Amino acid sequence: MHGIHDLGGMHGFGAIPIIEGDYVFKHDWQRRSFGLAQALAGPTPFCADMHRSKIEQIAPIDYLRMDYFEKWAIATSELLKDAGLVNASELRTGKKEFDVDLARHLPTGPDDLVEAMKQGVQLKFSAETSSPGFTVGEKVRVRTDAPAGHTRVPRYVRGRVGEIVADHGVFQFADTVARGQGPSPQHCYAVVFAASALWGDDAESPSDLLYLDLAEAYLDRP
Fold first, then answer.
1. What is the 3-state secondary structure (H, E, C) of 53-100?
2. What average pLDDT score do residues 101-119 get?
3. What DSSP state is assigned to residue 149?
4. CA angle 44, 48, 53 (to 5 degrees)
């Protein structure tokens, strides 16, 4: 998706502020927004890729003015509506208007949520799940696809040639997971690009190297 969220390599947004030390919530509502997204992901259910996809659908003018966790709250609300757990009127007024279908959404207690957080989720598949289409040391070109939905390949690298320096193994594919189409397991590679290959003579430091982890579906041979 060519969206406003894909800011890498774009001019006009100023320097990126570097904050030292541990992150601290500036406001209590930010903490609640984060906590609600984590707590509701299981019983809804939704995953991080689906949540990011909803954030990416926020209108550009709103995306640029909103706080990070305001976007989180909006994405969570949209996913809850999609799941039939709430409607727009309930979110607006805070008043319940219908009962949730408990056959589809089983009740989840605090202990269940804490245990799920501790366990995490397994995103990696066994090596036998999918054969690699590329090898370490091979030159690859990033596809120029611009899908309408979620994708993990930044636009500034599309169409550029790099070299595979590592094969991380087989992982679920974020693009299909975000669309609810399943994990589509495939190899994920570390690909190195020269700054000059990405930004040409205008690169600030042409000899710098940029490493990106890219799914196999993003890559072609030059």
1. HHHHCCCHHHHHHCCHHHHHHHHHHHHHHHCCCCCHHHHHHCCCCCCC
2. 82
3. S
4. 95
